């Protein structure tokens, strides 16, 4: 604050002296004054004034806090960044005394340096929280270390700890409850004063899971319902001994506990979340949103200008002009002032071309940079617009294949990472945890590589590139001497499907990898230690750009004879209970021909060789495979086009459990048919078809991110062909009514996840009581409800119950036994979702109940799911292994339509993490034969169900892609 002070002579020529000369003069006078006072000299202010007065000049009053004011003004010019000698530090400020040094020997080290191209073979020494040595570590260095821990990598890969640039871990924590939603604000479109750390829950169950996937750091963002959602922080996911959120921040900004900066400390980057587009509709439309930005930044610009003018006068020693004034600042807007000073890394949620254009214009109007655009579904379509961002091109943080979940994500493309990279735009793969479980951040990079992103850039997209975007590449996301000791030792090359950390260190402290858990069994061999060979997608990338994300997904239908050349494997459906069976598996160099006549395999082997002219179409599979088409279950695939856009789907279900729950006990419950809502040619279904998923069973209930469905009655499911043109096409609907579906569980934890004004839902006991009543007394068969509840009670159709909690499953097993005893029938009961089924595996098997794991990669999303079996590297067993060992028929499914296209990779991952206890043939059955048997559609699909031809590898290889579908029921082959 300004105050009355000491006069200082200033030239009255009307011109300000040179700034540096004036500062030196003022400092000299103040120094003399302080020295004399310190010596005890009888020295009055008037004496000093007279001494400092120049003849012909006028007097200025120096405020007593002039030094502080000048220091504050000088601080405005300081830019964030590490000290020049940062990497020469001897220890990290995060080092915990007593932690022993660790030497990782014989490693293949991907450092993240040189744009991801640097690979070193050798050792890594971790000590005092930093990387102390890299490559060859001399014995003289090791001799001075006490209690050295040695880990032999045996040539395996070591990478930096993964960095998740977009996460809500800790502020949208799990298991989800109504009290853990601290991710956004309803108090206006602009709230730069809010901070994610103030809602950061240190008890989030997701921390350990994320670390188990190799994630060591995450930028925790406020929500995207505000144009300016608040300040973000980059956290290490390791909890510290004092258990505070503050201690988990990587580099706390000076503003964390006040606005005064320690001049002796380096200035750390601050982080801010912004958003645009549909999420801001609570405060108006896009025009309202951009005005809110402009209004907020104008406030900040006014304050910044006032500060600059104030400091210009102070630095010119024009103290009288500042008399009675204080340094201009406003706690609400100070973060945006720092944005304008280039001291904040902005993470900007933005989807569409119009949004990017809006924000790029905004940055140029107010002259501030954006570090990264997030979600960015259409960024790949406007690279030149992105390059016009003030201050430089932002990084683009995106999903690999999670698209079409709302209208503005509709044009998202799996080819976006490669297209962005080809335009020299930094690519970041992110989780948006818990939208995607950040434990599988590496899977996002694997998919990006599969669709064409170069391997070094794919690895960089989850390490060095996000670290650079956050301004922290001097310490995280990279392995170099002096950087933080965050490292991951993998069982395979990290871009191999199913790659799992053997050990994870954060700040040199082992977090995951204790003795006793087996990791990597079944993945031995050199091929697992190199980046996977992936298909050529050049044509698809060109078409994606040409059609602006809407390339046609149709197929070319060929009748007559089709010859598949260079086929290494042929698999077919076996008899019931036998899954898939091998018809042919080539030995080294033993690929053969497969001849298809009118949609049926006519011949396999050397005897089938025919000339080029003898077939209408010849398809070279380059050592690929032919295998049964996969089946998808669990999502509204084919019921909706865009998940978050009600106008493209079924709409809200009328659920009698919510409105007239007591009447349902009198058998007034209604069952609706999913077949009546089927729509064909949805992009999710067509992309699934092109990925080898030929059949899908869908019901009407939708799951939300925050805990199951909003209804109890899921209706009557239907099974259809994903590639069918319409419902009248031969074979389009495989089974019109497949099963009766129910959803049983506790209430959705977040009111915001329910329909506006909808109640929380019936009690758990009421749900089970009503189901008991409907199975014991289903009513007359002159109503839809009566017909199908009777069939379910007699065991004529499966009853599929979406349930997560083991105790609820026990109650349902008791109910099954009660109904069967009283009706003398056998219910065909299947548990789907079934997150805790492993806890009662023996009981499920004894009851003859099947299980469909719709979240095969387990996650404790709600309280009903919180006792998951995580699998390696946290546990030896997985849910699939446990259930199979007890004799339970198991299959896998999905929760959302976009996931269907990833079914073959989900099946492969499920098998790979079992340490060889589930082979790939059995994995195939998880997503085909087992699933079809549990749903009762195996007879309809039959032994001659559709087959899929893969070019370049087998069903589960990252080297392969589906190129043709053999369709017996329609007597043709579809060329993709």
Automatic annotation (TrEMBL):
Source taxonomy: Eukaryota, Fungi, Dikarya, Basidiomycota, Agaricomycotina
Plastid recorded as keyword = no
Tell me what organism the protein belongs to: Ceriporiopsis subvermispora (strain B) (White-rot fungus)
Query: TM spans, by residue?
Result: 26-51
- Recorded superkingdom: Eukaryota
Residues in Amidohydrolase-related domain copies: 403-506
Q: Name one Pfam family in it.
A: Amidohydro_1
Answer yes or no on keyword ATP-binding.
Answer: no
- InterPro entries named among the record's database cross-references: Amidohydro-rel, Metal-dep_hydrolase_composite, Metal_Hydrolase, Metallo-dep_Hydrolase
Q: Which GO terms describe its molecular function?
A: hydrolase activity, acting on carbon-nitrogen (but not peptide) bonds
Q: Where is the signal peptide?
A: none
Write the record's keywords in alphabetical order, separated by commas. Membrane, Transmembrane, Transmembrane helix
**Entry protein name:** Amidohydrolase-related domain-containing protein
């Amino acid at each position: 604050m300004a105050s009355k002070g000491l006069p200082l002579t200033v030239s009255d020529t009307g011109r300000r002296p040179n700034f540096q000369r004036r500062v030196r003069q003022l400092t000299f006078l103040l120094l003399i004054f302080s020295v004399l006072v310190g010596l005890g000299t009888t020295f009055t202010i008037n004496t000093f004034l007279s001494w400092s007065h120049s003849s012909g000049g006028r007097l200025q009053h120096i405020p007593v806090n002039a030094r502080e004011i000048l220091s504050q003004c000088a601080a405005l010019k300081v830019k964030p960044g590490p000290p020049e000698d940062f990497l020469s530090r001897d220890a990290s400020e995060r080092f915990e005394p007593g932690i022993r040094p660790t030497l990782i020997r014989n490693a293949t080290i991907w450092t993240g340096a040189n744009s991801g191209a640097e690979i070193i073979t050798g050792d890594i020494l971790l000590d005092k929280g930093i990387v102390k040595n890299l490559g060859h570590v001399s014995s003289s260095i090791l001799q001075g270390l006490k209690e050295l821990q040695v880990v032999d990598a045996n040539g395996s890969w070591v990478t930096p700890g993964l960095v998740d640039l977009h996460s809500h871990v800790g502020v949208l924590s799990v298991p989800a409850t109504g009290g853990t939603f601290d991710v956004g604000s309803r108090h206006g479109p602009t709230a730069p004063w809010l901070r994610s750390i103030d809602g950061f829950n240190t008890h989030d169950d997701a921390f350990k899971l994320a670390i188990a996937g190799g994630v060591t750091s995450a930028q925790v963002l406020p929500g995207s319902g505000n144009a300016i959602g608040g300040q973000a922080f980059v956290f290490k996911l390791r909890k510290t001994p004092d258990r505070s959120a503050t201690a988990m921040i990587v580099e706390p900004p000076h503003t964390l506990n006040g606005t005064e900066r320690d001049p002796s400390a380096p200035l750390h980057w601050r982080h801010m979340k912004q958003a645009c587009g549909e999420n801001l509709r609570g405060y108006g439309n896009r025009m309202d949103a951009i005005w809110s930005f402009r209004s907020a930044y104008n406030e900040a610009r006014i304050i910044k200008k006032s500060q600059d003018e104030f400091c210009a006068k102070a630095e010119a020693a024009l103290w009288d002009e500042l008399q009675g004034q204080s340094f201009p600042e406003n706690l609400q807007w100070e973060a945006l002032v720092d944005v304008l000073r280039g001291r904040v890394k902005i993470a900007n949620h933005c989807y569409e071309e119009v949004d990017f254009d809006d924000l790029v214009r905004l940055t140029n109007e107010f002259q501030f940079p954006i570090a990264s655009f997030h979600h960015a579904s259409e960024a790949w379509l406007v690279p030149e617009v992105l390059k016009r961002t003030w201050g430089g091109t932002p990084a683009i943080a995106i999903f690999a294949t999670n698209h079409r979940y709302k209208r503005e994500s509709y044009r998202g493309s799996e080819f976006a990472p490669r297209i962005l990279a080809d335009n020299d735009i930094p690519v970041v793969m992110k989780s948006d945890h818990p939208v995607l479980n950040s434990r599988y951040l590496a899977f996002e990079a694997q998919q990006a590589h599969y669709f064409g992103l170069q391997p070094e850039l794919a690895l960089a997209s989850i390490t060095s590139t996000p670290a650079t975007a956050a301004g922290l590449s001097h310490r995280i996301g990279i392995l170099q001497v002096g950087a933080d000791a965050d490292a991951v030792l993998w069982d395979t090359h990290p871009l191999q499907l199913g790659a799992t950390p053997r050990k994870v260190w954060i700040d040199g402290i082992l977090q995951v990898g204790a003795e006793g858990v087996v990791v990597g069994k079944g993945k031995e061999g050199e091929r697992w230690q190199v980046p996977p060979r992936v298909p050529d997608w050049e044509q698809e990338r060109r078409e994606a750009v040409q059609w602006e994300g809407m390339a046609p997904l149709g197929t070319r239908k060929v009748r007559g004879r089709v010859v598949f050349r260079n086929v290494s494997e042929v698999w077919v459906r076996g008899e019931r209970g036998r899954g898939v069976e091998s018809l042919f598996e080539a030995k080294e160099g033993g690929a053969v021909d497969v001849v298809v006549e009118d949609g049926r395999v006519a011949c396999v082997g050397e005897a089938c060789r025919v000339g080029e002219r003898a077939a209408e179409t010849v398809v070279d599979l380059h050592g690929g495979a032919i295998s049964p088409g996969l089946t998808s279950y669990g999502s509204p695939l084919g019921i909706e086009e865009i998940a978050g856009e009600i106008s493209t789907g079924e709409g809200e279900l009328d659920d009698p459990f919510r409105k007239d729950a007591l009447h349902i006990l009198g058998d007034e419950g209604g069952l609706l048919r999913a077949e009546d809502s089927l729509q064909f040619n949805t992009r999710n279904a067509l992309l699934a078809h092109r990925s080898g998923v030929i059949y899908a069973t869908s019901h009407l209930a939708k799951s939300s991110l925050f805990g199951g469905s909003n209804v109890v009655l899921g209706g009557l499911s239907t099974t259809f062909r994903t590639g069918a043109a319409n419902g009248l096409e031969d074979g389009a609907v495989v089974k019109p009514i497949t099963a009766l579906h129910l959803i049983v569980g506790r209430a959705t934890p977040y009111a915001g996840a329910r329909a506006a004004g909808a109640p929380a839902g019936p009690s758990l006991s009421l749900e089970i009581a009503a189901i008991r009543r409907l199975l014991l007394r289903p009513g007359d068969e002159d109503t839809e409800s009566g017909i199908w509840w009777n069939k379910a009670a007699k065991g004529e159709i499966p009853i599929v119950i979406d349930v997560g909690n083991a105790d609820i499953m026990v109650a349902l097993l008791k109910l099954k036994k009660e109904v069967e005893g009283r009706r003398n029938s056998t219910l065909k009961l299947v548990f789907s979702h079934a997150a805790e089924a492993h806890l009662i595996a023996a009981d499920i098997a004894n009851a003859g109940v099947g299980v469909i794991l719709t979240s095969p990669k387990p996650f404790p999303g709600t309280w009903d799911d919180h006792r998951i079996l995580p699998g390696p590297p946290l546990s030896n067993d997985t849910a699939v292994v446990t259930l199979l060992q007890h004799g339970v028929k198991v299959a896998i499914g999905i929760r959302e339509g976009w996931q269907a296209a990833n079914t073959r990779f989900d099946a492969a991952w499920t098998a790979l993490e079992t340490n060889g206890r589930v082979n790939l043939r059995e994995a195939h059955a998880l997503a085909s034969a087992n699933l079809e048997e549990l749903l009762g559609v195996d007879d309809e699909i039959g032994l001659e169900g559709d087959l899929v031809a893969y070019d370049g590898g087998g069903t589960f290889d990252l080297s392969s892609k589906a190129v043709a579908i053999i369709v017996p029921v329609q007597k043709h082959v579809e060329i993709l």
